[in-house]
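STRUCTURE:
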């Protein structure tokens, strides 16, 4: 019985032999704590395990089948390429045979090509071959691909070209005959070679033509010199005439007032063309010097050259832009007024001066019309010589349409009074609202009345009307 008990306990003991031996109770507690931590991680590990299992279940393992299908397709393509390789090798053998055959014919073809090349060089001019023949052949070869096609394509054109050549030579022969007749020469007009006539041309170009060109150059220089002198002289005369006329107009306006103001014109050189003005008006031209004298050239050469460079084209074949620029310069630099700046100065009773150029944009419409009427009336008075003795019977008529449309009654009356003081006769067309200001100051008033399609003209005398009323 004891032995049975012993064996029983031995079996139990074997079960615990795998359990570690603990030296102390503290070691056992550490192991239990580690086991507790491991047990706490079990839920998370189970979740990870489930995720891995789901990923495994979601994998598409059919790609192996697709890969096998691609392998099969590639093996099929490889077989096709093998057949093509065999075909290419067979063609290579045939081509090698053709090459060998062609190489055997190359010497004969080169010899034939050389003969053709010599024929072309002997038949046609080398310069024409390089400039026209060879480039045209290459162009046609690229288009038609073969020389035979080029030959067939140009067959009819060759015939036309021969006809044109014969016609051209016939015209050339006529010209040669005409040249011989006019110049009393005996050169052969039927000669296919143009050497004799070419030599004649060289003689003309190198001798007579040079003489003519020298004469033309000399004549042009004389004409240009004369043109420059006349041009500058005319500009100077026009500028002096304008200044003199303004002086005469100023003398006319000197003792005539317009309301509380007196007016005078002022002219001065243009700031943008001052160097040209100084050159044109230089007194050296009145002291025996001309434009080409050393003294004048030393002082004004730059301005003189600059002016004529703007208005004389250097090349007769200049383009459209240059032509437009030339036309613009001609309009700008041939008008004497472009070399001057004009202004109208008004002076009040206290002697204060006002320039029209500075006040024009600051004044009202009626005030800006004052200078216009003063300028027009003074200019006509000067033209009709109303202030000069011996001109009492000259014409003195001025016609104004839509007169005084922006002026008040005082300025209208001053304008009419100024015209009377200058001895001018006015014919004025004005709107109805201006009649009250104009009628009392004129000798005769005509009223134009339009009713529908009927127009009538009636004499209107405000003084008679006032008496009747």
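SEQUENCE:
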């Amino acid at each position: 019985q004891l032995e049975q008990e012993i064996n029983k306990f031995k079996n139990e003991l074997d079960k615990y032999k795998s359990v570690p031996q603990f030296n102390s109770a503290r070691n056992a507690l550490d192991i239990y704590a580690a086991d507790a931590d491991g047990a706490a991680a079990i839920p998370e590990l189970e979740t990870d395990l489930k995720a891995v299992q789901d990923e495994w279940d979601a994998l598409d393992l059919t790609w192996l089948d697709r890969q096998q299908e691609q392998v099969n397709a590639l093996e099929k393509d490889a077989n096709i390429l093998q057949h093509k390789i065999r075909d290419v090798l067979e063609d290579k053998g045939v081509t090698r045979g053709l090459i060998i055959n062609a190489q055997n014919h190359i010497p004969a073809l080169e010899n034939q090509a050389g003969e053709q090349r010599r024929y072309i060089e002997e038949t046609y001019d080398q310069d024409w071959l390089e400039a026209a023949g060879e480039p045209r052949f290459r162009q046609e070869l690229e288009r038609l691909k073969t020389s035979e096609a080029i030959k067939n394509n140009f067959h009819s054109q060759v015939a036309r070209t021969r006809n044109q050549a014969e016609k051209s030579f016939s015209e050339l022969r006529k010209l040669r005959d005409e040249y011989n007749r006019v110049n009393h020469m005996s050169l052969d007009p039927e000669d296919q070679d143009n050497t004799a006539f070419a030599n004649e041309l060289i003689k003309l170009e190198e001798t007579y033509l040079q003489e003519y060109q020298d004469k033309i150059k000399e004549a042009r220089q004389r004409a240009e010199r004369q043109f420059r002198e006349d041009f500058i002289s005319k500009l100077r005369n026009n500028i002096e005439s304008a200044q003199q006329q303004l002086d005469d107009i100023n003398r006319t306006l000197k003792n005539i007032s317009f309301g509380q103001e007196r007016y005078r014109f002022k002219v001065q050189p243009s700031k943008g063309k001052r160097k040209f003005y100084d050159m044109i008006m230089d007194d050296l031209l009145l002291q025996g010097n001309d434009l080409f004298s050393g003294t004048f050239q030393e002082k004004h050469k730059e301005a003189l050259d600059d002016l004529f460079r703007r208005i004389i084209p250097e090349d007769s074949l200049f383009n459209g832009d240059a032509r437009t620029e030339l036309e613009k310069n001609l309009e700008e630099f041939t008008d004497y007024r472009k070399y001057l700046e004009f202004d109208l100065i008004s002076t009040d009773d206290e002697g204060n001066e006002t320039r029209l150029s500075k006040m024009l944009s600051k004044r009202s419409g009626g005030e800006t019309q004052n200078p216009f009427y003063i300028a027009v009336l003074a200019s006509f008075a000067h033209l009709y010589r109303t202030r000069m003795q011996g001109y009492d019977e000259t014409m003195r008529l001025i016609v104004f349409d839509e007169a005084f449309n922006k002026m008040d009654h005082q300025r209208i009356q001053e304008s009419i009074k100024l015209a009377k003081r200058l001895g001018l006769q006015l014919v004025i067309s004005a709107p109805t609202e201006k009649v009250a200001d104009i009628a009392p100051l004129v000798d005769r008033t005509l009223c134009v009345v339009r009713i529908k399609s009927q127009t009538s003209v009636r004499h209107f005398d405000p003084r008679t009307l006032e008496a009747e009323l």
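REMARK: The mean pLDDT is 84.
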